[in-house]
Design a protein that fits this description.
The protein is of the alpha/beta class and about 270 residues long. The protein has nine helices and seven strands. It has a seven-stranded parallel beta sheet with strand order 3-2-1-4-5-6-7, sandwiched between helices.
Amino acid sequence: MTDETPEVGQRARAERFTGRRVLVTGGSRGLGEQVVRLLLSEGAGVATCARKPEFLETLRRSSGRADALFTRSLDVAVPGPLEQFVEEAASTLGGLDGVVACAGGARGQGISEATAQDWSATWEVNVGHAARLIATSIPHLRAAGGGSVVVVASISGWKPGPQAQYGAAKAAQIHMVSSLARELAGDGIRVNAVSPGSMLIPGKRWDRMRRDDPPAFDRFRDEFPGRELVLPEEVADVVAFLLSDQSRAVTGANIPVDRGQNAPTPDGY
């Protein structure tokens, strides 16, 4: 039992990131956008990057707190610009209390068709970018007395599905998190992973399937015990929890947010 009223609880939630500085990669659309908007709504100063400047500008105009949002257009898979962005973000925000490696993706098809470049590109945009983001952020998190790192992985990291290069990269992210949580604990830095299931994001694959091929979408819903896909807002709530002091005893964890999903794609396995 608690003596806290609902109003007090809501006020504490609205203020839990006041004065905090958080960097989020891939924050212009989808899950990353939801994380950025949630952090801004709860008082954080936020820095985010994405490849397309027009999406960043749309985010800025609609954020309601443009003065608290620092953006930069770049490709996280390219070494150099991301590291420079971390330094610029820390300087602009006055430090960093948390970072979220949200950018990700995949390239190539099955093992017979995928090239070495497909495997390399998929690794770099997922594992490589997250590793370089964390490494560059450590001095700033250490200067803040510690902080929280969240890596957005996927249930594809342990639930088999096509393509193998994507699942292998996500599995590597999850392992990296468990290792770095121990390595950085002495600096007061927590490191965790969030593994979303298939998210229903407007304009993306599952939303297009729902619109263009309702029977296939209905079959895919059978992979979920409750027959409902995950919403990006639901995943963003878990990311924010891991960034907050509410999770101060949580590190080295991989938290699935998948509604109990079975296969990660309609293609089975």
